[in-house]
């Protein structure tokens, strides 16, 4: 149950961030500045906390192995994205720093979506949390495309 709540918070936080960014941002750079902390913290932060504190339950929910050191290491990496996105925002490091963290995170989500798609096809892992990842990664790429490309 807790994993479903975390998943809902992850999606809701991302949705709020995208809405606020496109509502209040007039330029791609303004949109990027709002989306960077909201999206990265909503996804990477909750995923990292989920992996560290509810790793066993999360693995079961997604149909993956349980208790792997790689799972812990991945959770720590995700938390580092969230922390750096927050630091970039609070320190007002600007567009280049925002682009760096968002692009790094985007590539992570694209590769993660590809890994989930591989798991669906090769491992026949039809758990809902696994099935939705390729689509969510594609949707995230789509909403980030305009502010990222327009900020160069």
Describe the structure.
The chain is mainly alpha-helical. The protein has one domain (2-150). Helix content is 85%, strand content 0%. It has seven helices and no strands. The chain has helices spanning 2-24, 28-53, 55-62, 69-90, 95-122, 128-131, 133-150. α1 runs antiparallel to α2 (28-53), α2 (28-53) runs antiparallel to α7 and α4 packs antiparallel against α5 (95-122). It is globular and about 45 Å long. The model has no long low-confidence stretch (mean pLDDT 96).
For the structure shown, list the relevant keywords.
152 residues; mainly alpha; single chain; globular
The main β sheet shows up as:
none
Gap from first CA to last CA: 42 Å
User: Based on DSSP secondary structure assignment, what is the total number of beta strands?
Assistant: 0
Give the count of helical stretches: 7
Helix content: over 70%
Rg (CA only)? 15 Å
Give the ordered list of helices and strands.
HHHHHHH
Tally of distinct domains:
1
Q: State mean pLDDT (0 to 100 scale).
A: 96
Q: Structural class per helix/strand content?
A: mainly alpha
Give the DSSP E fraction (strand runs of 2 or more residues).
under 5%
**Overall geometry:** globular
Unreliable stretches covering 5 or more consecutive residues = none
Could you give a quick summary of the protein structure above?
The chain is built from seven helices and no strands.
Give the helix/strand layout:
Blueprint: H1 2-24, H2 28-53, H3 55-62, H4 69-90, H5 95-122, H6 128-131, H7 133-150
Helix pairs in contact: 1-2, 2-3, 2-4, 2-5, 2-7, 4-5, 5-7
């Amino acid at each position: 149950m807790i994993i479903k709540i975390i998943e809902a918070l992850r999606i809701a936080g991302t949705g709020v961030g995208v809405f606020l960014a496109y509502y209040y941002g007039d330029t791609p750079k303004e949109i990027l500045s709002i989306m960077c902390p909201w999206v990265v913290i909503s996804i990477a932060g909750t995923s990292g906390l989920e992996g560290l504190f509810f790793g066993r339950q999360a693995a079961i929910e997604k149909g993956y192995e349980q208790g792997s050191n790689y799972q812990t290491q991945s959770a720590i990496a995700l938390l580092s994205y969230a922390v750096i996105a927050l630091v970039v925002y609070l320190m007002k490091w600007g567009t280049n720093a925002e682009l760096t963290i968002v692009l790094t995170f985007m590539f992570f989500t694209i590769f993660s979506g590809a890994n989930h798609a591989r798991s669906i096809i090769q491992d026949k892992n039809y758990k809902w949390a696994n099935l939705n990842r390729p689509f969510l990664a594609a949707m995230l790429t789509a909403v980030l495309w305009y502010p990222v490309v327009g900020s160069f």
